Amino acid sequence: MKKQNIFKLLFVGAFISAAIIFSQPVSTQAESTLQAIGEQNAGLSSAPDNLGLNNDLFEVPDFKSAGYVDSNGTSVGNTAALMNSLGSSAGGNLRAIRMTSFQHQVGAIWSNVDTSAGSLKDNSIDIQKKQTLSMWLYFGPSEHTGGGEFGDGMAFVLQNGDVPVSHQGTLIGDGESLGVWGVDRNKKTSSAQTIANSAIPNSWAIEFDTHPNTSSTPGAADYFDNGISGQHIADGYPALATTYNRSGGLLSGYAYSQNHTDVQSNLSLHDGAWHHLTVSWNPITKEITYSFNDKNVDGSKGTNPITVTTSPMTSDDFGTIPDDKLRWGFTATTGDYFQANLIAFESLPALVEGDATATIYDNTEKKDVADGDAVNSNDNLAITYKLNYDSGRNDWSNIKASLNLPKNITYAPDANGNIGQIVYPSGKTEDIKYSDLNNNAYYHELTENLNSTNKTATITFNGVASTTSSSTNVASVRSHIDSDSLIKDIDTPAFVIKKSKPITLTLDSNNLSVGSNEDAKITGKVSYADGVTPVVNSDVSVYAKLNGTALDTVKLNSSDTAGQLNFVVPSGKLLEGTNNLEIYVQDKDGNTSSVSNVTITRSGSLTLTVNKDYGFGSINQVDESQLLPRKGNWDITVNDNREISKSSWNLTASTNGLYNGTTAFNGNLVYINGNGDETALINNEPVDIASGLKTATGDQVTDVSKVWNSTSGIFLRSNAESPAGKYQGEIDWTLSDTI
């Protein structure tokens, strides 16, 4: 892919000048030179995908103009250069940054710090923001072709300043100093502060040391790694006097060892492989976290990464930091032994600081699936890759997503042929077509740039966990995000699909009829299809929807027989007429039965309410006909909760009269309708009182007596004198469902 490879320096003839200082035979020297070039080019030709080097963002200091010399008094040049696979910085496919390749070399490359407004050259670390640097490091093959040792390694450095390399006067910090630690070339140096003063000031460094220096010879610069075994990684503050320990004495001279922090020893740094390094700054905790070997060249996750989080850094560690910007870079050295030290940058936070993550959500269980979690066969899963822009000078543009989807998931297209969607905060969406999926791999170039106003791209695939006859491990898969200014690799969580145990629900009946105030009782049997697995009632949940509305989830009753379903739908939730119930069960492992449908018919009813506290007024003896008014609470109501239909109802009343003992009242109860028509209630013959028609859903209440007044309703008519006394009787009210 096309990268920003526009660095065009450097130092032709670096190998020749470095080789002149040796007193070995010409043929051996030539062989060593060719061997060093071969090892360098082997690393360059295998460099991973990277951003190249933009010389507007970096500087390669000129050591010669500064007058730096090595311990032999030989002028030292900066050997850092962007090289192609043939070991040339002139044209071709520029692959990586060569820091050193032969003996007695020093290389240094530093980010530009430009705080001017709108600067396109600033490549600093902003300590007020989250910052992430990622890169690849190469330290040479496992062994030199001609045998011999390796030395010395590289260092990643943060500094508050612009010192190009550690030095003591013009004496450069080569060999064990790695270009950043103090210089211990004078055996008369009696103060650790003097050693610290020759280091890069106001700095912090991670060293990748391929040659342990453990000789205590005073002034030989060969004792920094005393007590450390083999190749190692460590970090610390080069310019602090407490970093160095003095040994020896005034007569014999002094040698200095180093107090390393976070030591990782006995490593294999020069093994012919590129090693990935991620360095992150947390502006909240003021800590740096670095991970070494966190991924492999093929994009897969590193199996045994080294991850270190430092103690919180303080203002004293770097001094006063102008504009909250730190310079960062790499230094590398060789001494008596040669080594190809190579770097390939993958992300620069000054350009784009961003993240990419992969997550899985179980839509069936409503939960996130973390690494090592389990899902159930046939669960609906959402696999989401999220790209997030944090900060930077540039848009995150030309994003190319090469996504690998987890196996053992069925990605079935919807009616439009889609298996997912890409969503941006701008409101734009992109459909993910099933036809673009190739053996669980999906490649797509995003149509939107990400920036401070359009921060995320959320790429979601929808799938169903496979039905498995045994628990199945689904491995994490790695995906690659490429662009002009940021490269990311992301891993899905590994998870387990549980063995499928088909569970069934067999209902005793799929049709029920209940009365208007009667609960619907659904009964049945739950069992496993294998006929062997026992049902544990407390592990089985019952899910139901009544007329499309979810009911409360309950468990099978532990006191019932194993697998017995007794599910009650309260009468108050039933509609008049036909109701549809959807019901299924699920065990604690997510095994789910098919949905059963039950038709529940709620028969409607007519009810009559009559308040019996009623009567008629008193009467004096008269010999002519007289109409006596009602007295008391004549409350007569009809409640109709049947379905809306053409059926009506009719209310009649009948009586055989009023009596005082065996003496009949001389008169009759009469009903006068709204038109004034009067009908006598005699001989238990029914008289029509009211009628109605169901016109609304639910309970329809008619208050029959409410419409009666002083001239309508039921009265008592006296025809002539009756013996004095209290006359009583009964009225039979009859409510009929009519057609």
TrEMBL record:
InterPro entries assigned: ConA-like_dom_sf (IPR013320)
Signal sequence residues: 1-23
Keywords carried by this UniProt record: Signal
Top-level taxon: Bacteria
Protein name as catalogued: Extracellular protein
Organism whose genome encodes this protein: Companilactobacillus nantensis DSM 16982
